[in-house]
Protein 1
Amino acid sequence: MREIQYREAIREAIIEEMDRDRKVFLIGEDVGVYGGAFKAYKGLLDKYGPDRVINTPISETAIIGAGIGAALTGYRPIVEIMFIDFAALAMDQIANQAAKIHFMSGGRLNVPLVIRTQGGVGKGLATQHSQSLEAWFYHIPGLKVVMPATSYDVKGLLKTAIRDNSPVMFIEHKMTYPVKGAVPEEEYTIPFGKADIKRKGEDITIFAYSNMVLKSIEAAEELEREGISCEVVDPRTIVPLDIDEVINSVKKTGRLIIVSEACRRGSVASDISARVTERVFEYLKAPVKIVAGLDTPIPYNSTLEWASIPQKSDIIKAVKELLEEIL
Amino acid sequence: MGNDLKAKKLYITIDGYRMEDKFSGLDDSIKIEMLRKMYQIRHFEDETEQFIIRGMIHGTCHLYTGEEATAVGAIYAINDDDYITSTHRGHGHCIAKGADLNIMMAELLGKRTGCCKGKGGSMHIADVDSGNLGANGVVGGGIGIATGAALTCKMKKSGKIVICFFGDGAANQGIFHSSINIASIWDLPIIYLCENNVYGMSTPVKEAFNIEKISDRKCAYGIEGLTIDGNNLVEVFNTVSHFSGECRAGRGPVLIESLTYRWRGHSKSDAQVYRTREEIRQWVERGPIERYKKILIGGEILTEKEDKDLEKEVAVQLDKATKFAMESPFPEPSEVEDDVYA
Ligand SMILES: Cc1ncc(C[n+]2csc(CCOP(=O)(O)OP(=O)(O)O)c2C)c(N)n1
Ligand SMILES: [Mg+2]
């Protein structure tokens, strides 16, 4: 199968959906001639013109607001927030408005809005451009939250997000844009709430999403050479969450590690741990282990930056520790 | 007779505001000092660019090259103990406010000796000792903070004022509106200084605004405001001198739009498809240092030779800063958990 970059997969999904449905349009900062800060929209202004590729002033609150209003009245906007950190500026529109409108209207109004954004550590962009904030959105009923790790997943899930009638936080990772992965030529979509076993294994389950899937796979490959077999489960969407797939894996392996780039306190990882423990405590041969980012802001210096989030070596160490532990 | 001349105040008019020409009364040494500061910024940014090219800057950088007259003219018109807030394009403000070049350069290289211990980097560069309350990674993030600092000045009756630097792009954030309105109803001693450098990343000002001048927004808040030539140091100095006096007299705030131009790409990675080489060339020809130098040499305040020597001195200073930065140690990984709480 052909291999394409994550950013190319995003672009393909958008082109297919914009060709399929006139109601889909793009709006955001530097999405025009610049082609988006991470170049996912290269050439789209020329292809669709300024009516469907709308470049905006720097006004996150108003951009999200405009997306919500257009969505309520018949369009299917894809709003880009350049860094997830800046979603903070538009939090009322996202959390109090977009997330609630369908419910508040007794199901009579829909907000088919996709908020495309990216987060994560790795480019030396320091405290205000490197956060993993998915827990903010995970916490708010009414929002769906997608965190694709691979080219294949990002394409199929973005197409589903665009067709969904609820607001979707579509959270990419800044380190994955140049990564290549297999993507078929034919059209496909990926349903929300369907986890993917990224690697089959017997001894231990590693639950990870977004860029941590890639690090977990690397760790699993290295552990394989030492005779340890890890199963890597990627939920792909954290809302809705395919908890059953995780449970099934844990029933088989009896051990669970949750890897999270986001800092530990109040994290999605903590919630997954609680859910799994509630459901299959009797199957666990050892306590669930969380490998997460430190509870600190993200520093600039690359060594400190590296130290602030889980690395392959941390995952390997955690796996080995957990295998030694018996309840 | 000489004394009489000195005592006589000269007046000028800038964008409809009559004000004293404070610049002409300045000591020659201060006029030359301002040129030195502009050279420091220019050379600092050139050096930083070299680091970027050699892959030694881990994060991104937004260079202030070409905008030097705005930072230097404005900051020399206020007192050392007045406050500023800065932006993502903050090296120039930081240098003008008096930060040490060594610790700034060390910060860019992520060293422990850096002004933020290697934790902030270019986008958060600031030397708090010199009254700089911080650069900002969030466009518009400093506008609220500056307003709060001005509230302190007023409550303490300290006589201090604040300059809030922000870009044209930031003027379209909601916080611009709510902060200036608050400053207006509270009569805060603050200068909102909008650096209109023609673009916010790739978006031209003419596409992001439907008004002639950003300073026209003054009407919405019932405050004074004007648009000035931000590449003319004398004009920036005189305007900020005048309005800092107004602010200290309780007649703030004010909105100053300073017209300038960013010579380099927006950040480390910018192919600059949104503008032409010709446009850049025209602005470079009207560069702030080049223009100010002419004024000093024409006024016989400085000779060509003294100018060359001055620039050489600055270059030596920058070499020292680079050496200091390169030789400084990196922080230990364990230091990541320091400084989270006060
Ligand atoms: C809230 C927010 N939105 C977007 C960005 C990305 N960004 C960084 S600088 C910039 C342009 C800022 O333009 P302007 O305020 O005019 O300052 P300039 O870069 O021209 O000095 C953008 C869009 C950001 N850092 N923060
Ligand atoms: Mg600008």
Protein 2
Amino acid sequence: MARPVKFNIHPKQADIHDNIAIADMPEGLQGEGYFATSFEKVIGRARMNSLWPLPFATSCCGIEFMATMASHYDLARFGSERLGFTPRQCDLLMVMGTISKKMGPILRQVYLQMAEPRWVLAVGACASSGGIFDTYSVLQGIDQVIPVDVYVPGCPPRPEAILDGVIKIQELALNESLRRRNSEHYKALLGSYGIQ
Amino acid sequence: MSLTHDYIKQRLEEKFGEQVSNFEEPYGFFSFEAVKEDNLKVMQFLFDDPVLRFQFLTDLTAVHYPNSKGRELAVVYHLHNLVDNVRIRMKVFTDINTPDVFTATSLYATANWMERETYDFFGVNFVGHPNLKRILNVDEMDYFPMRKEFPLEDQTRIDKDDEMFGRGGSII
Ligand code: SF4
């Protein structure tokens, strides 16, 4: 039986005031002509809304990322307009696709070339756990070679899921303490991957 | 005159007698077996003969038959006569404990990488190969993954649901 199509039968009038998300102001001291707050809150907010992703797309999930990036889903809405294709300019490594064991050192090299602060998003079952490729040639999850901040499940995940992962990374960037990357805890984490 | 399978077989038998055997035509594809020590001689003959002219090596790989003792590994050569457009298949069998086969690199330059691949996956030791090392897998790999004693899955995994990967569990 044909399914009745119910999309857009009551089109909304465009309402610019309703459609624009305005971020809340961080906590701070406010008076006439000035506003004082801590660096941490301002910088976190700036980082959050200007992530430069580095797409590391090796297979089918990469195709899904292309849709995420293109006009329909439009990653640019989240301040990630500019995809960088050099790790030295980027702060978000998006790994999408099957990473073979031979690709592992290359991925690690790319990660090492990124400057702090850097985040890693593992998109798809393959990047997160090896996925269906439970075999001799495939790395069983990129967290064996580099630390991962957010995992996006799915084979492949829909663009909405990838966007959700990016938003989760944004939350991490917003709430991250400026001192985290200097902390003992963080050094120990990197140390466990053999990264100085 | 087109090159017929019967003619190829006749020429091979004339030249090599007992050394070539097991002529078959599965799916119309002419195949035969040669003694492993003679693989180069047979290929050289097929290459140089003015009528046979099998001067192109399409593929080279191996097969593992764990149950045929003493003949576990088969190295398979696919040869192509580009002039008459005829393809044949030649196999040599070897014991898995002494997997030494002469390299075909001096005859077909393309055998270089294909023999490296065959070494990588099956551990066939191509005697005389100029650079016999792994080509596709990581250098640290210490086994030959296409041999059947090695299970397909990575046995070190513990966080995957075994039922989904055919390791133990039940199949209804
Ligand atoms: S998770 Fe699925 S869709 Fe993504 S790369 Fe792996 S196999 Fe392809």
Protein 3
Amino acid sequence: MCRRAHVLGLDQVVKLSSTMHAMKVVVCVKQIPDPADPGALDPETRTLKRDVKLILDESDSYGVEMALQLVEAAGEGEVTLVSMAPNNERSGLATALAMGAASATLVSDPALVGTDALTTAKILAATIKDQGADLVIAGSESSDGYTGTVPEQIAAVLDLPSVTAAKSVEVDGSNILVKRQTDAGYDSIICPMPAVISVTAGVVEPRYPSFKGIMAAKSKPVEEKLAADLGFEEDQVGWSGSGQEIVEVAEAPTREAGDIIEDDGEAHVKIVEFLESLKVI
Amino acid sequence: MYQWSDEHNMLRQAMKDFIAKELVPIRDELEHGNLPPYGLLRKLFATFGMDEMASASFEKRIAYDKAIEAGEVEPSEPKRGEGMDPAFSLIPTIELCRQSPGLVTAMGVSVGLTASAINSKGTIAQRERWVPQLQTMEKIGAWAITEPNSGSDAFGSMLASARRDGDEYVLNGSKTFITNGPYADTIVFICKLDEGNDRKDRKVLSFVLDAGMDGLVQSKPLRKMGMHSSPTGELFLNDVRVGRDRLIGESEEVKKGGRDGAKSTFQQERSGVAAMSLGIIEECLDLSVAYAKDREQFGQRIGDFQLIQQKLAMMEVARMNVQNLVFRTIELAAANTAMTFAEACAMKLYSAQQATAVALEAVQLHGGNGYMAEYHVEQLARDAKVLQIYAGTDEIQTVAIAKDLLK
Ligand SMILES: Cc1cc2nc3c(=O)[nH]c(=O)nc-3n(C[C@H](O)[C@H](O)[C@H](O)COP(=O)(O)OP(=O)(O)OC[C@H]3O[C@@H](n4cnc5c(N)ncnc54)[C@H](O)[C@@H]3O)c2cc1C
Ligand SMILES: Cc1cc2nc3c(=O)[nH]c(=O)nc-3n(C[C@H](O)[C@H](O)[C@H](O)COP(=O)(O)OP(=O)(O)OC[C@H]3O[C@@H](n4cnc5c(N)ncnc54)[C@H](O)[C@@H]3O)c2cc1C
């Protein structure tokens, strides 16, 4: 996915004196039904009902925090938000604005019901395109839809380099240095800006919105757009524009009860036999 | 119609998250160990920028008051809706009280009583000297009026005294049940000026003391029934010498002999108690509903028994009423008005009684578990009781309400 990014060996990472420059970071934030009270699937469309109040996806609070830290480190610049959500939902945006983002663009349009991940990426890309961002940050995967494809699709649509699973990002002149999480540890990546990064959950500690931040959020600008404002025809979005369809939804299998081994003095033998049968030892 | 706004709900959620992450894991040490509450409170202030906001508003106010003193501006009444949304200061109280009401007692006495007492009656120099660190919780404050033989009759039986000695005063006396007493950096000491006259005619003066002054002893925390996360202690003053710079207002000529200052402090305390009660009631109700749905006896959940349903309904009625009283104080504060003294007494009396009644019913509904420290209602029932005793007992509130009706 990192077409223009170079994977460096660890020893090649040299810290260059970073030159300060105003950073403009756009963060994609998804507003989702509260996972503590997720509501139900619509049996007809087999998608999550979204008529409840939506909140900021926790996965995206890490992106917001990382963006705020990057702008603070640069000393100058701002964080703006983009979100596509039903029913003109703003609650999740309000949370991210209270954390410190400066403004937001919200794409909300009844025509967008049924939009799949690729079209979502196209809509978001069209929103981001003219913002002059140095960096676009998204979560690695949302907590509800979970496809983990939107960030790379945004990068492809905008023809920008993309780094996934970032655990830390540092600006170095016109490049970013990214530590990319892997099974074994991390890759160190140097990548030119502008770029799209997806951030792994838990890598930074999202700040609490402060008293001042909460009070200020109300008066921060949120620009609302319809699909048509972004140049999309009705048949390009929503159910008709989707290249994918959810054909079946099944219950997750319930966990089976485990075997209980009573310790009659020989339990260790049985445990070893069991582990051998699984070929884990 | 007043309701919690989206901003209020956002703040409540953020407070809940902070409390779950920072307070709940150390609650046992705060309640049953020797961990003082101040570290956590400072963290709360810094995290939500409450310290920064308090400093900014203090500086603005001081600059304004200096300009008035210099004759540069005319004093004017503050405009409606100016300043911080009053709900923002009550929400932390409500949320903290769901877990550890003692934290609010410790915070309220330091920031609410002590800092306010100096800020409302002190000279500009005194306010600049003590208030900023108290408002940010960098320094801990105590406010001392109660004595072993002087509680409800705070002014009548007060023995603590100040004697003039040249340009200075010599202070003596014992204070007890003093919140933050064991750890306070800054103490407001309330006493009577001894001019050799009859004790009931003596002026009431307030002095600011710093920990470590010669002749001042701060006791260890006293053991008590509840509010364990709020340290309570005794103060002993033996010929403590202070200059006039420590006499609040730097004048012996305080309105109504100093009783006014203490009285306005009482009024503020009383609205705080309503918010504390709401937190306790909300938590007890939530825990009780969950338990009533979960616990089974006689082959059914206990929530199906009408006697249990009655308890839940009574708790809900209390929650609604106390929440409405809290909303009323917010609306009045936003409009820059306040309840009458008798109304504030009525609110404090009702809220405190309901908090205690609800918490005890919550213990009852939990059966044996409710009596065990493992279940949170046990702590809340012990904590709630003091709301009927401090900041003026139930009986004293009742007397004040009746006095106002019959005047
Ligand atoms: C099982 C299932 C059910 C679905 N149900 C519905 C439904 O009921 N209604 C409906 O409208 N869609 C539904 N979708 C579609 C899905 O929500 C969209 O495709 C979604 O916008 C993008 O997919 P994702 O959540 O998997 O994103 P991912 O690729 O997992 O998200 C990664 C990151 O991309 C960014 N991002 C993703 N979506 C948005 C967005 N909308 N706004 C801003 N940033 C975003 C965020 O930063 C996010 O952390 C469903 C999809 C699936 C697979
Ligand atoms: C946890 C805790 C923290 C405290 N923190 C502080 C603090 O920070 N600073 C401080 O100065 N004080 C503090 N106090 C003291 C508190 O304000 C007093 O305990 C309270 O005012 C009652 O006074 P008392 O204890 O002397 O009771 P008393 O006045 O002796 O009352 C005993 C009983 O007689 C009743 N009674 C008294 N007078 C009348 C009357 N006229 N009519 C009818 N009944 C009457 C009372 O209601 C009560 O039931 C604290 C107390 C506690 C328990």
Protein 4
Amino acid sequence: MSGSAKLCKHKAIEIHQKLWEVRLFELRAAELYREGHLPGFIHLSLGQEACAVGACLALEEKDFITSTHRGHGHCLAKGADPRFMMAELAGKHEGYSKGRGGSMHIADVSKGVLGANGIVGQSAPLACGAALTAQVKNTGQAALAFFGEGASGSGPVHEAMNIAAIWKLPVIFFCEVNRYAELSPYSVHVPIERLSERSKSYGFDGFTVDGSNVKAVYNAVSSARQKIRSGGGPVLIEAKTHRWHGHYEGDPMHYLDDKDRDSSQRMDPVVMFEAACALELGINTEELSKSKENAITLIDDAVSFALGLGAAPTSVISEDVYA
Amino acid sequence: MKKNRQPALKYYSAVTRALSEEMRRDENVILIGEDVGPSGGIFAQTKGLHAEFGPSRVRDTPIAEAGFTSLAVGAAMTGLRPIVEVGFEDFLTACMDPIVNQGAKLRYMLGGQVRVPVTLYTFGSGGLSAGPQHSQSLAAWFAHVPGVKVIQPSSARDALGLLKSSVRDDNFVICLLCKSLIGSKELAPSATEDFLIPIGQAEVKKSGSDVTIIALGAMVKRALAAADILKTDGIDAEVIDPRTISPLDMTTILKSVSKTNTLIVVHEAMSPCGIGAEIVARVCETSPSVLRSAPVRITPPFAPSPFAPNLEADYLPSVEKIVMKAKLMLEDRR
Ligand SMILES: Cc1ncc(C[n+]2csc(CCOP(=O)(O)OP(=O)(O)O)c2C)c(N)n1
């Protein structure tokens, strides 16, 4: 696709730190979950970091995102505070949802994060709604909907794409194709090889990118954002990626095919980007270690913060039911 | 020493057994839903069915609840007897039209020309810190719809017997299973027994003379535990599990209330316009003078189900709350 802005060094370092924030947040969450510190169930996006980070860092700060049950990376990348996120995962009052939502319902509206969501498919029409606000109020904002190939077969996603096309909404449909939806492979959910081809039938552009390559994702979303800025309608971006962990933590993954079971075959988006930083952008190892260190500090702090908190007061149960 | 033990039946494997027995019995029975196929389901509830009955009769669907539920209605009108799995009860909201406007009404609207034998089962209710979109109890929504039957098994045996009856029923039956009971087990009916529980029949789980406690789903166990505690205080509680929510077995309920002259209803759904409200209303309509103290509903507050374990524990009806309310009621009467 054309118009791919060359990544500047500053942005690259920002991306590098975010990749590590997302990676470390989820590795720690997996550990805390195993140790029994996080109740309920959690869905991790390990292996998919380049999607969240590349997409969110190509957006403007004022833009909106809507997310899914697998949303930690999206929220972090768009600027949510890992301390309040981890507090929410632990069910604490200081968490983003006051301990009432958990992993699947993290939002930071001040950063444009309109929420992770436990209902598959709803991220797309919700993002269209945010895009409608931007259009009606002429704010210049855009909205990006994260969803998976599983969600792509749901009615709400198709309806959203059709409405967005007709109304020329400033929305980016960002489909993370991570090869499985819950316990079944891509082929159970999508009969064509490239989901992005569907955009044509709705009447807008679609592209397929390597979702392990954060530069490719960043460039694709940057161009889509550029197109929206100049009044173009929606764009569909399909990012081919891999989900390393189970659908939920603790999932025995009996359904994996042999290729996906072999972790030596995996592309690690973080390692891949570090190599590119050194080779193409002249970023030295010292600079890379520094941004990684920053990420480690942030996530360590988030974990100590969350674990140091007391239980949420029961008074929050009945708060915020109505405005 | 070897004991000759009868095998245990787990709640989730009761689902598997019910489905496989009915699929063996009738080749028109098919199973569709998300991950019901080779993976065997998220709770292993459909394990082995794809291997035994093949890809034509056991089908993984894409994530399209509205589409595949309506498709099941169409198939049911034309000769199949589909079983539909919707993973979580909360997602029934994604297929309301197929249930409420299609499955429930087509027979009526088409002059009785068709039957719609669909069994839709789903895992609902709370207790697992699953948060507001994965913990709901929506029985009342469907009990409000003529043409739909609603069942809620509170034990493995009930899951087996009621699900088998649903598959044989010629109507749209919604089976609301309780996630918190998935691993619970009971003595299994013998493997050769065609174990059926009729739809529309309540069960007196414990008989008693002082207070009637009607409990639904996972609350049945709590009501029974409360009854044990009440007994030590000299209060003899009767615990009833309606098992079928629509149509309600009012005969069993009224018989109990006439004996105890009291009524407590416990459920995980909220009070307003709920099943508790319905039971209280029907008791008052039929036997206006039978209650000697105000009826009591024990339910969560009018708020979504919160995620944090301490919040959810406070939110759901507890054994202690049932004991306390029952005592209070009987004290008031004295
Ligand atoms: C309406 C609805 N149906 C079903 C589910 C259960 N469910 C949760 S995640 C999931 C798979 C989603 O797959 P995909 O969209 O590809 O996202 P991924 O999990 O791969 O990130 C399913 C079926 C749900 N949450 N909501």
